Amino acid sequence: MSHEIRIHGRGGQGAVLASSILAQAFVDEGKYVVAIPSFGFERRGAPVSACLRADDREIRALTNIYRPDCVICIDPTLPRMVDIFAGLRPGGTLVQASSLRPDAIARPGTVETLGLCDAVGIALEIFGKPITNSIMLGAFARTTGLVSLDSLMDALERADFRDAGLAQNRRAMQRGYAETEVLAPEAVA
Q1: What CATH number does the domain containing 155 carry?
Q2: How much is the pLDDT for 186?
Q3: From CA 184, how far away is CA 112, in angstroms rounded?
């Protein structure tokens, strides 16, 4: 089954690195994957996105994701600046970095499943700065079940981290998985 995922963040938060880690985890689980970064202004703090397509069959489409099944937003302030929901398919999933309660999260009716994680709070505890990418990958695994935490952890070992070590990122990913609140279709209003 095909899954199209779009990751939104800001330059310097690791959205593109998160996409490559997630792609590797899918490959390790026997999926075909295409990961496409999209940088925009390419400066620290500017909105960036990365697209990922995973399927059980070979993938021929190499375009950006315009109709995602899932949106991962690794920065809680970004939805005020960018339409992260553009093209989200009905029945879609939002995995959002936020310390807000679920009823305080603005989202369109196309969102069926919501995963919330206080990724910034976790990141400040672990890294001392708001780098949320590995945390939100754990949140994605918890929310969707599309990839296992073990596969993400294995893929993490092959990633190139500039600012933090493997042990910190492993702990961050585990906390993202453990501390994500998932609202299933019947609970999302």
Answers
A1: 3.40.920.10
A2: 57
A3: 7
**Burial profile 22-35: b = 16 or more Cβ within 10 angstroms, e = fewer:** bbbbbebbebebbb
Q: What is the DSSP string of 34-94?
A: EEEEE-TT-STTSEEEEEEEEESS-----S--SS-SEEEE--TTGGGTS-TTTTPPTTEEE
Tell me, what amino acid is at 7? I
| Host domain of residue 137 | 2-188
- Nearest CA to 74 out of 108, 122, 2 is that of 122
Residue 41: pLDDT over 70: no
CA separation for the pair 20, 84 (Å, rounded): 20
Instruction: Report helix, strand or coil for 95.
Output: strand
CA-to-CA distance for 146 and 160, rounded, in angstroms?
23
pTM: 0.92
Query: Is the pLDDT score of 2 beyond 50?
Result: yes
pLDDT score of 189: 45
- Which of 126, 116, 143 minimizes the C-alpha distance to 22? 143
Of 35 and 25, which is predicted with more confidence?
25
Spatial separation of the C-alpha atoms in residues 167 and 23, rounded to whole Å: 21
Give the number of domains in the chain: 1
